[in-house]
UniProtKB/TrEMBL annotation:
One family name in Pfam for this protein: ABC_tran
Entry GO MF terms: ATP binding; ATP hydrolysis activity
GO CC terms, sorted: plasma membrane
Biological processes per GO annotation: amino acid transport
Coiled coil: none
InterPro entries tied to this protein: AAA+_ATPase, ABC_transporter-like_ATP-bd, ABC_transporter-like_CS, MetN_ABC, MetN_ABC_transporter-like, P-loop_NTPase
Protein name: Cell division ATP-binding protein FtsE
Amino acid sequence: MIPYELPFAENAAAAAPAHIVFEGLRKQYPGLQGPVTALHDVSFSVARGAIFGIIGRSGAGKSTLLRSINMLERPSAGRVSVDGVEVGALDEDGLVSLRRGIGMIFQHFNLLSAKTVADNVGLPLRVAGVKPAAIRSRVAALLDLVGLSDKAGEYPARLSGGQKQRVGIARALVHEPKILLCDEATSALDPETTQSILDLLRDINGKLGLTVVLITHDMAVIREICDQVLVLDRGHMVEQGEVWQVFGNPQAEATKALLRPLQHGTPADLAALLVPDLQGREGHAVLSLRFSGRARPAGVSLAALAVLGPGATLLHGGLDRIRGHAQGSLLVSVPAGVLQEEAARAALVADHIKVLGYVPAVAR
Ligand SMILES: Nc1ncnc2c1ncn2[C@@H]1O[C@H](COP(=O)(O)OP(=O)(O)OP(=O)(O)O)[C@@H](O)[C@H]1O
């Protein structure tokens, strides 16, 4: 019998035309001990309507790369194009108009404390000379979009971090941008608030068709919201692709290190029991099964797991669903000698299977 499999959708954004293109981007800053190269020959593109994540450790070059999109940082070499226009070649008026089409939100919100929520959101429109009535209606619509209609008259000091970021998002959207840049937008927030802000960003991406480019050092943010990810390491692009692919089969050391906190390692109590072989004693083998989401995107059928036999025990691990691909790892114990590694591989279609060690019967 063929097990029923849930359908899964491939990411449409991956096939969409490029909205932002980076070609051979290099950035050097002057430093006390000579120039610091923050970006080395970075080339990639961001599809229109995608949520694109840039991740890397501190100092990897994320901010420099993000800020090159609206020319807050000018590259030392190479070019950035938005909608086919090279942004480095724009004159002052061109830059003003480019920046109106690119909203930006920040880790520390950058709100003006002496202005109310409504005034913070409306300020860019006032600066642009928009009439007060039009400002009022636009601000009201945006506060409604971010769920803050009842806070229009409040001052930022009386808002929570999540509410302040919602104001930041509303302000970033005043000029109806086509691109939203998010600079560590959830790094100052607790996990629950982070989730609500990511939900809002996804909602805005869907409703307004915005292209979202975000930088973060947190792989959980990438997993939660992004379609595509680029990994930077000391200014070099070390990995790029669809999020499920990069998570399911990371290649670069930097990616593996960034993913480690999210992975189900071997719990310490179990690791303490493991021996390299049983030396003729009875016991269990502990296997690690890893599923990358490629072979069985819809999930791992219980019928496939049943091949491990009635003596098998699921010990630890789990599957995540990333953009329609189920992936993760399971630690299982099976009576030693009953199951050959190759047989398990063939039956389970696990992408990676490894014997971690053995637990002698007495210690189990
Ligand atoms: N204005 C500057 N002058 C000199 N060096 C700079 C400047 N801005 C950034 N750098 C250097 O460029 C490199 C990349 O910095 P960048 O801020 O882009 O990294 P990042 O990945 O965003 O780091 P973080 O996560 O800590 O913000 C670092 O070595 C940094 O010290």
